[in-house]
Amino acid sequence: MSWGNELWDQYDNISSHTHKGIEFLDKYGSFVRDRCAIEIDYAAKLRRLVKNYQPKKKEEEDSEFTSFQSFRNVLKEIGDLAGQREVVAENLQQQVLSGINLLSKNLRDERKKALQEGQTLTQNLQAHYGALERAKRNYEKAYRDAEKAVENYQKADADLNLSRAEVEKQRHNMNMKCAQSDDAKNEYANQLQKLNRLQSVHFETALPDVFNRLQEIDEKRTRGLKEFIKGAADVEASVAPIISRCLEGIVKASESINEKEDSIKVIERYQSGFMPPNDVPFEDLSKMDTNSQHSSNAVGGTNVNHMTSKGTVTANKLKKRVGIFGIFGSNKEDFSDLPPTQRRKKLAAKVQELTTKVQQEQAARDGLMKMKGVYEANSVLGDPMTVEKQLNESNHNLEKLKQELRKYQHMLEQATNQSILQQSPKSATRQNHTQNGQRGSRHSNGSEHHDHHHSRDGEDQPDDAGSLSSSASPESGLGTSHTSLPGSGQGSASEQINDDHFYDPEPLQPLGTCRALYPFEASSEGSIPIKDGEELHVIELDQGDGWTRVRRMNEWTEGFVPTTYIEITLFVDVEGVDHLYVNIDNKAEQQ
């Protein structure tokens, strides 16, 4: 069915319908334009949301928690979703909106041309209708005039009183009017014939062609709207897989949250490493004299101090022995303001960082040495002296890094040893022995004498010999030099204390075993000689001065040996110990 045949007389309605159809197409184009604006605004707001909720620098420390990591992944996926909304807006503008605008313009031009042609045809038909109407009126007037002339002639011819001339005049007038009537009739017939032919062509061919073109224009508009709606859906569907993956990523991020793991990380972050305080003893004043009351008050005050974070029994006693390292106590770079566990973590991280830097600097130095060798082998490639300055600077930087690494390894070793003592099953007994003054002295200069190593404010003061204990490698000469051990000629006579006074009433239980890596000749009081490969019991760990107390396997001979001369295997499984002594062994091998 075509509009030309079925709607041959609906010119105005067809014109109005096609106009409304193109306006509807423009309306859909406005809808797509507004949707693009909304998609862009939505994407911008999503990106702003992601930016506003990005973790701040002060929150970076929480990045280890699974919930925090999951939220960061969610933000990343939301950012990707925002990008897909931008893609949708861009594709709608390029593929749909631009097509709508182009089609609308073409349809308007084609409709205008068709309507102009139809208007021309209609005006031509109307002109022929006007000509026919005029010819008809002329014919009617001429016909009436001819009838009147015939009637006048008949009256004149019947009237005997009129002359022959008068009768002839009326007859001549009649003949003229009848001729004019015939001419008007023929003109009317001609106009009618023309109109009928034109009207047939107009309503059967010309105007239907115009209506059919308008029908094609409207169908093209409808078909275009169909394609544009489907195209908009295709644009949305093209990003659906990516959006689906983003949603899957969000679900995966939620599934990665592990509350148990986060709880463990909370323990790792905030665990202090301190031991819980002992029970407060009951003081029966009725059974105590005045002196014992004073003593009890002093002991009670001590217990109170032991409950503080840095006033435990172990911390106080260990502080006497490692007092020579008090130079790091007030420096925050050694993390001394942190609890023991946290301090060990920070020190281990620092050791790892310095180890990486040392490896990088060594690689750079090796590269310079290779370059220097190439230049020396072939002077055409370059002057070896140009590399010498860089090589010296690299060696200087490497030595500084190694010194700093050894410093932090020593601090880590000290902190780990303190933790081992606190967690050892015999630590409480050993602490009591130390507190009662019954712990054996490894040196003869009275390094654990309370009166000589505490100032008025109770802080430990390093002795003169302590400054030499930071170098305990085989090459340092510590085993053969009297100045390398405290008490070898450095203290006064009043500071010399008999070893028998500090003899343990009960033998200390071994903490582990050790194997001698190098032979050692004891040349200082308190030390014992060892042979290469000899197996010994470890009685007391190195607590910062570079010496470890050992006992021979099949006898009760005890003494101190350099820590770097032995490889230690502990009975107590303490986190971080294996890593520590691997570092000690590596240091011994490097030295």
Report on this structure.
It is a single chain. The chain is mainly alpha-helical. The chain has helices spanning 3-6, 11-52, 66-158, 164-255, 259-270, 290-306, 313-321, 340-377, 385-423, 427-435, 577-590; strands at 512-516, 535-540, 547-552, 558-562, 566-570. The protein has a five-stranded antiparallel beta sheet with strand order 4-3-2-1-5. Strand 3 and strand 4 form a beta hairpin. The radius of gyration is 57 Å and the shape is rod-shaped. Mean pLDDT is 76; it is low at 291-331, 425-505 and 573-591.
Strand order of the largest sheet: 4-3-2-1-5
The secondary-structure element order is HHHHHHHHHHEEEEEH
Counted by DSSP, the helix tally is: 11
User: Which residues sit in consecutive blocks of at least 5 with pLDDT less than 50?
Assistant: 291-331, 425-505, 573-591
Main pleated sheet: 5 strands, antiparallel
- Helical content (DSSP H or I, runs of 4+): 55-70%
The radius of gyration computed from the alpha-carbon positions, rounded to a whole number of angstroms, is 57 Å
Strand tally is 5
Q: Give the averaged pLDDT, no decimals.
A: 76
Amino- and carboxy-terminal Cα gap: 103 Å
Which term fits the overall shape? rod-shaped
| Residue fraction in strands | under 5%
Alpha-beta content class:
mainly alpha
